[in-house]
Specification:
Elements lengths: L14 E5 L15 H12 L5 E4 L3 H4 L8 H16 L3 E5 L4 E2 L2 E2 L17 H18 L5 E5 L20 H18 L12 H4 L7 H6 L4 E5 L5 H5 L4 H4 L1 H11 L8 E6 L11 H12 L5 E7 L29 H13 L11 E5 L16 H11 L5 E5 L17 E2 L4
């Protein structure tokens, strides 16, 4: 089996994986799991050189009632984990689904007549923690379990731009995250357990889930990077900004890290045809992987996603039918070939050189303020990209107090920092 998930990135190769989207029936396949079909899908994924997958069991099927966790559903998850083991791949399991490809999968005991706040209602938080613990316990002795992640971008349910947000404060968001991470560790003490927030946590000024939470809680700092966040629309499909989007995002995440050796995980990145032409995709895959590998402490890259969503399924945004490395019939696409080749090339790539000068990101005393300066089009983003275009290999540095501006820069070996006013 592959290296321990806790192996320091400086002594182990970067991990490459794929977010697994079942070819037959998409995630609805959990309703009547076909292990033969799963085996076919995962054999194809393994053929790319991937060493891990990310798995998405649906919350309403695992826990259809607040006090009912289905043993059969937990067994189904374990069965898929075991198939991956037979193919030499490790698995991270997302515990709360949550949100996938524009659809929400929230159990009925949180909706309509039973509407409750999933983050702050004490009974709901207790029940959710029980599910996370039970899932972790069912998987704890699997030799290929990397760990659990707290759902897929569950923080989107709290965002101010959500159609029906579950409002909460920054301390409440942190308390919810800590409670669920503790449950994961109770169930599987040896796992690498992480928080899978989408980028509102990093770029939305009023969001209760913060960069500090993503960078300090859990066993690695996770980022999900998508160029349809404004990067592609603003700068263009073949722009420097698109090619270096993940590199910037990883350096932003590293800037918030409380420890230099904390692993960074690019857990989601894909090639959206809403921005890219099909002829752009191999370039995008290659550029994204090569530039991400320039970030110290990078633990792994997990591509979204394994298979296209079948066009027989209705009401998906069009791009969801095109994101796979394989098409809905299981045939390798240009993106899959490019990712396979990028994995092979990465094995020969040397360790990243030290980064250049640090561009300051003042965050102020209130964590709710000023994050938008780091978003695409913001002042910090613009200056980082300008320095990158000039070949400076810039990094970022979080400035919490004025005194930090004159402090030595431990990330860049003392390189001069440039302050940006927000």
């Amino acid at each position: 089996m592959s290296a321990s998930p806790h192996t320091p990135t400086g002594t182990a190769p970067v991990r490459f994986g794929v977010n697994y989207t079942p070819r037959q029936g998409w995630f609805h396949s959990w309703l009547d799991l076909d292990l033969d079909a799963v085996g076919e899908d995962l054999t194809a994924v393994a053929s790319l050189g991937a060493d891990h997958i990310r798995l998405f069991p649906l919350w309403p099927l695992l826990q259809p009632n607040r006090t009912l966790i289905r043993p059969r559903a937990l067994d189904d998850v374990r069965a898929v984990v075991d198939i991956a083991a037979q193919l030499g791949m490790d698995v991270v399991v997302d515990a709360i689904q949550g949100h996938l490809s524009s659809f929400d999968f929230v159990p009925s005991w949180l909706a309509t007549w039973h509407r409750r706040n999933m983050f702050t209602d004490p009974e709901v938080v207790t029940a959710t923690a029980q599910l996370v613990r039970a899932l972790a316990q069912r998987l704890a002795d699997a030799p290929n379990l990397l760990g659990l992640s707290l759902g897929n971008e569950v923080n989107q349910f709290s965002a101010s731009n959500h159609p029906d947000p579950d409002g909460l404060t920054v301390p409440e968001a942190e308390a919810w995250t800590r409670t669920l991470l503790d449950a994961a560790r109770d169930g599987a003490p040896q796992g690498m357990h992480t928080v899978a927030n989408y980028d509102a946590a990093w770029f939305m000024d009023d969001h209760a889930f913060t960069p500090d939470q993503s960078a300090q809680l859990g066993d690695a700092t996770v980022v999900h990077s998508w160029i349809f966040d404004g990067t592609g629309q603003r700068y263009g499909a073949r722009s420097h900004e698109v090619a270096h989007r993940t590199e910037y995002y990883l350096e932003l995440a590293r800037a918030f890290s409380p420890a230099p050796e904390r692993p960074l995980w690019l857990q989601e990145v894909g090639a959206p045809r809403s921005i890219l032409e099909e002829t752009d995709v191999p370039w995008f895959v290659r550029s994204t992987v090569e530039n991400s590998l320039q970030c110290p402490e990078l633990w792994g890259i997990t591509w979204w996603c394994s298979h296209d969503v079948s066009r027989s399924l209705a009401d998906f945004p069009p791009l969801e039918h095109t994101l796979g490395l394989f098409d809905e019939d299981g045939r390798l696409k240009n993106s899959g070939a490019a990712f396979r080749d990028a994995i092979a090339a990465a094995r020969e790539q040397p360790a990243p050189a030290p980064r250049g000068r640090a561009i300051d990101l003042p965050v102020g005393p209130d964590p709710l303020l000023l994050r938008s300066a780091a978003a695409p089009g913001g002042s910090v983003f613009e200056q980082w990209m300008e320095a990158s275009r000039a070949g400076e290999r810039p990094t970022l540095r979080v400035v919490r107090e004025l005194a930090d501006v004159t402090a030595g820069d431990t990330r860049t070996g003392g390189a001069a920092a440039t302050r940006v006013s927000l």
